[in-house]
Amino acid sequence: MSFPSHRFRVRFRLVAGCVLLIAGFFGVLHARDAGRAERLYLLSRYGFHRGTRYERPASDDLAVVAPRARLAASLYPRNYYFPSYAAFCALAEARDAPDRESFDDAMRAALYFSRNAYALNPYDHQARLSRVQALAESGHLAEAFEFWAPVLRREFWNRSNHDVQARLLLQEGSTASLRLAVRERGLVEDPELRKRLNGLARALDRTRRRKGAAGNKQ
After folding, report:
1. Confidence band (pLDDT; 50, 70, 90) for 48?
2. Phi and psi for 79 in degrees, rounded to 5?
3. How far is residue 15's CA from residue 186's CA, in Å, rounded to a whole number?
């Protein structure tokens, strides 16, 4: 059995060294971009240097957050926390919108960022929550129910999922949906929502009794 020549071994080491050098260079670039993207997210969500003269406050202003989120996605697109946060900022801006045009712009941003967050990690609760809220509040309520149904089936004993389902049913607003929402009261996590559902149950029961009494009189 012949061993590789000295010349071959030198060339092999040179090629391997070049490959490692190039891989290391691109690894450094990747780490730099990922770090920049993460800093943009942390700056928007939490701010920097709290309690010092260099403090930079967090921002929930969509005009500030959205460009940062898009830049971060171009640098490191795997961070699904940032588009979720941007979607929630857009939803908050839509709720406070002074006119229809501002509302539509904010909702387009909410749908865009929530879609990206969910595509990156469909099992993250915040990504799913941003998506279902964006669908519901933009008027796509049927799509919101369709989106949330498999989540509720798969994670039935997660009480926060029933909070979402109950709020969707309340938003739909028909008598049938309100009765279904009342059924969720023993499963919801939010005590304020449970209190609201209990009050709704009493109101529906009073309405049913009044209708029954009116029918008996006839």
Report:
1. confident
2. -80, 100
3. 67
**Distance between CA atoms of residues 52 and 65, nearest Å:** 23
CA–CA separation, 24 and 32 (whole Å):
12
Please, is 183 exposed, middle or buried when counting C-beta atoms within 10 Å of its C-beta (0-12, 13-18, 19+)? middle
What six digits make up the tokens of 18? Answer: 């070049």
pLDDT tens profile 131-189? 999 999 999 999 999 999 999 999 999 999 999 999 999 999 999 999 999 999 999 99
* Rounded-to-integer distance, Cα 208 and Cα 189, Å: 27
Start-to-end C-alpha separation, the chain:
108
Spatial distance between the Cα atoms of 75 and 36, rounded to a whole number of angstroms = 8
* Whole-angstrom distance, CA of residue 82 vs CA of residue 76: 11
- Domain definitions of the chain by residue range: 29-47+58-124
Tell me the CB-side half-sphere exposure of residue 194, using CA atoms within 13 A. 10
Sign of the Cα pseudo-torsion (15, 21, 27, 33, in order): negative
* Spatial contact of 113 and 83, defined as CB atoms under 8 Å apart: yes
Give the integer Cα–Cα distance in Å for 94 and 135. 13
- 78-91: pLDDT as tens digits: 888 999 999 999 99
On the question of pLDDT at 23 being above 90, the answer is no
**Residues 192, 133, 144, 196: what is their CA dihedral angle, to the nearest 10 degrees?**
10
CA 80/CA 76 separation, integer angstroms: 10
